Amino acid sequence: MPQGEICTRFVGGSLDGQTVENTSPMYLVDECVHETGYWYRSNSDGATMEKGGKRDSLWHSYAVEVYRKGDKDQYGYFVYSFIERRMIDRCQATTQKGTQCMREAAINLTFCKNHKSSILNG
Ligand SMILES: [Zn+2]
């Protein structure tokens, strides 16, 4: 690769072996989260697992893979190593329209950032 380009390579998880050429420095984060495409929907008769597609108004949670940035390998690629799979839960707050908030809850919390602060502030 030409000098000065930023390229990354993934190790482990479902992205194992994939590379990204000439990416922007803004993507060179310490932790990178990759959506697997699997998500869960709460139906009236129980939950189902969905693969792909857009999450609809009944989404419950979805799976992501977390990669952590390491050193450059001998070819100059920044290596991102698979750390763990996480479930991202949906915010449990109810909006003014009476429907459940569509946003993701913050890690290890029940509510998204907006609803967390509004609850804390009364
Ligand atoms: Zn919310």
Can you characterise this structure?
A hairpin with a 2-residue loop joins strand 3 and strand 4. The protein has 1 helix and 6 strands, in the order E-E-E-E-E-E-H. Strands 2-1-6-5-3-4 form a 6-stranded mixed sheet, with no helix packed on it. The protein is mainly beta. The longest helix has 8 residues, at 113-120. 11% of the residues are buried. The chain has a domain at 91-122. It binds zinc ion. Zinc ion is lined by residues 91, 93, 101, 103, 111-112, 114-115.
Q: What is the overall shape? A: elongated
- Report strand order across the widest sheet: 2-1-6-5-3-4
Number of strands: 6
Mean pLDDT: 90
Q: Hey, roughly how much beta strand do the residues contain?
A: 35-45%
Give the radius of gyration.
Answer: 18 Å
- Unreliable stretches (pLDDT < 50, length at least 5) are none
Query: First CA to last CA: what distance?
Result: 55 Å
Which descriptors apply to this entry?
mainly beta, six-stranded mixed sheet, 1 helix, 42% strand, elongated, binds zinc ion
Structure summarized in a few sentences:
This protein is mainly beta and about 120 residues long.
